[in-house]
Design a protein that fits this description.
This protein is of the alpha/beta class and 313 residues long. It is built from 10 helices and 9 strands. The chain has helices at 19-31, 96-100, 139-155, 172-183, 200-206, 213-221, 226-234, 238-241, 262-271, 291-307, and strands spanning 38-41, 50-58, 64-72, 79-85, 104-109, 160-170, 187-193, 249-254, 277-282. It is globular. The two termini are 31 Å apart. The mean pLDDT is 96.
Length: 313
């Protein structure tokens, strides 16, 4: 019998006083770097109904970031777009299925992922703890900005309807969905599954599975660094971004998730600032967070908010 999960878990996550100032400075640095976007047709992967392109753009610290870009062959002059964000160990898929649903789709490979790892490659495991005692060089500082720059890329395209942008992902992709929706006001709808990177200091006590266990491994080797680690991750915790989210958002969590503890999902959901928010709990599910059933919910959500139509099923 799985243990019950409290919806009012007493989280230890605290927001640093200079949280906003820290990220304002990061965004200021990033804004000074030209995007230098390159869009390369990929005829091998293009089909009769979907055009496929490889995309490259420059992010903070001048790291080149890769992405897959798909668009339906038959589309409106200006088409809604969805940005897909990857899990911790996965490499970003080519999002042809989203293009077939009527969206322009961008699947981003932040630094360290395949095709984006020539300048930065801490490996897996290691990304989570790379420079974890210094918020100014911590791996996720650039990793987060790489995803936010994906929105900048979409905004450069005349075929994209800039008033109808969505973002989604699961696990790490769910956490990145939270931070992107929080930091990019252009996002009009977000769907976050089993959000990772939310409740770091809670998760390392609630679970002993990887990737969070990487932090416990680090602390076993460097027990004297606990204060610095906790200070750093507070700047990158999705729970501390959540109050900035104002767009409609759905979150799904598995009540028996031993990778991203459901307690952290509850805390995250409570902190989300949007009025239009819905939490989907899937009992009997772990880190999949009910994906097989929930995918239809996600389809209906984006169709309503981005395509302006209702989808049955």
């Amino acid at each position: 019998m799985p243990k019950p999960v409290s919806a009012d878990y007493p989280s230890k996550v605290r927001k640093p006083d200079d949280f906003d100032a820290f990220w304002d400075d990061v965004l200021r640095q990033a804004s000074g770097i030209p995007l230098e976007a390159e869009v390369v047709p990929d005829p091998l992967r293009t089909s009769e109904d979907v055009e496929v392109f490889q995309v490259f753009y420059t992010s903070i610290e001048h790291v080149r970031v890769a992405a897959w870009y798909c668009r339906p062959v038959r589309r409106a002059e200006r088409t809604p777009a969805i940005m897909l964000l990857p899990g911790y160990q996965m490499d970003p898929p080519i999002p042809k299925e989203w293009a077939r649903k009527g969206y322009i789709a961008l699947s981003v490979a932040p630094r360290g992922k395949l095709r984006s790892n020539s300048q930065f490659n801490p490996g897996y495991p290691n990304l989570l703890t790379h420079n974890i005692v210094d918020r100014n060089t911590y791996a996720y500082r650039g990793f987060y900005v790489d995803t936010w720059r994906g929105i900048d890329f979409l905004l450069t395209l005349p075929e994209v309807d800039s008033t109808r942008l969505g973002v989604t992902g699961s696990s790490q992709g769910g956490g990145l969905t939270i931070t992107t929706a929080a930091m990019r006001s252009e996002v009009r709808a977000a769907a976050a599954g089993a959000p990772y990177l939310c409740g770091f200091v809670d998760a390392i006590e609630l679970t002993h599975t990887y990737p969070y266990e990487e932090i416990n491994d680090y602390l076993r080797l460097h027990p004297e660094s606990r204060a610095e680690v906790e200070d750093t991750v507070a700047y990158f915790d999705g729970i501390n971004f959540a109050d900035k989210i104002s767009c409609p958002i759905i979150v799904n969590i598995g009540r028996q998730d031993n990778v991203c503890p459901p307690e952290t999902g509850h805390v995250l959901f409570e902190r989300i600032g949007a009025k239009d928010k819905h939490l989907y709990l899937y009992d009997g599910h772990g880190h999949d967070a009910g994906r097989a059933k929930h995918s239809a919910v996600v389809d209906r959500f984006f169709a309503h908010h981005l395509l302006g139509r209702e989808v049955s099923g």
